[in-house]
Amino acid sequence: MTHETTLTDDIFLLGGDLPVRRTGFGTMRLTDATGDGTQSGAQIWRAPADPSDAIRVLRRAVELGVQLIDTADAYALGESEDLVAAALHPYADELVIATKVGMVRPSPTDWVPLGHPAYLAQQVELSLRRLRVDRIDLLQLHRLDPAYPIADQVGALAALRDQGKIRHIGLSEVTLDELEQAQQVAPIAAIQNHYNLATRGHEAVLDHTTAAGIAFLPFFPLATGDLARPGSAIAAIADELGAAPSQVALAWLLHRAPNMLPIPGTASIAHLEQNLGAARLRLTDEQLLRLGS
Questions:
Q1: Which residues form the NADP-dependent oxidoreductase domain (predicted)?
Q2: Which residue ranges make up each domain of the chain?
C-alpha cells in the first residue's frame, strides 16, 4: 500500500487523549432496506441479507487509514453495531469506535428520542455486547429528549463513564445552549450535528467546539444540493483539481476547522476510496472564498 492511497496523517486528539485521523467512516449507509444493494428508499432498518460486502467496506476503510468508525444502536436495530464487530473485532489499538444511544425505532419510518436514564443505561449495555468491548470509546446521545432534563440524560452517561463503560461522551444535533448545559454536567468530547457546505446552521456550535477543543462530526457531510450543479463553484473547483464535487465538499469541511471530523459513509469501496481521497486535496484561499468561506 503506497502512502498516496492512504489517508494523510492529519490527527485530532478526540477527548484530548485519542488520536484519530480526521476523516472517519459512518456506518449508516451499510444498512439496506431493499435487499438489492441499491439503497433505494433505505430506511436504516435492516442489515443487508448478505453482510459480506459491508464487511469488506469496513475492512477496506481501516486498511486505508481510517481510525474513527461511527455507528448507532438505532441503525438497523443494532445490526449495524453487529456488522462493525463482525468486520473489525478484535479492534486494532489505534481504532476508535463511536456509537449512539437514545433513539427508539418503533417502525421503519420512525425515529423517536428516548432519554430516560434507565433506558440509556440499558442501551449502553447492549451496545457493549454487540460491539464486543468492555468500554465504548465515544458514546453519543443520539438526540436529547425534551421529556427529561438534560442533566439527567447526560448524568446517566456520566455515571457509566465513572463505571468505566464509556471513555468519552458526545452529543448529537444540539444547540449551543444545550451543549453548554451538558458541559455543566460532564466533559463533552464530541458533537455530531447536521453540517455541510450547503447547510451551515450550526456555525455557533462549531465555533464553540473549535475554541474548546471538542470534536465536531458533521453528519450528511456530502449533501451539496444545487451548489454542485453544472457551472457551480464546486463543479468548477472540482474540474480545476481533477476531483469529484463530493471530494471538494469534504475538503472544504476539513479546511473549515481543525476539529472537524467528517464521517462520510457508503456501501461502495469505490466511493469509499474517492471520499478518503478528499483528505489530500488542498484548496487555495481563492477557492475557499468562492465556496463562501
A1: 24-289
A2: 19-290
- What is the spatial distance between Cα 222 and Cα 42, in angstroms, rounded to a whole number? 17
Q: What is the pLDDT along the chain (293 residues), one digit of tens a residue?
A: 333 345 767 999 999 999 999 999 999 999 865 444 555 557 899 888 889 999 999 999 999 999 999 999 999 999 999 999 999 999 999 999 999 999 999 999 999 999 999 999 999 999 999 999 999 999 999 999 999 999 999 999 999 999 999 999 999 999 999 999 999 999 999 999 999 998 999 999 999 999 999 999 999 988 766 677 888 899 999 999 999 999 999 999 999 999 999 999 999 999 999 999 999 999 999 999 999 87
Please state, in angstroms and rounded to a whole number, the distance separating the CA atoms of residues 231 and 290.
13
Whole-prediction pTM value? Answer: 0.94
Spot the catalytic one: 75, 119, 148, 195: 75
Please tell me what DSSP assigns to residue 92. P
CATH architecture entry for 19-290? Alpha-Beta Barrel (3.20)
Partners of 215 in the beta sheet? Answer: 190
91 catalytic? Reply is no
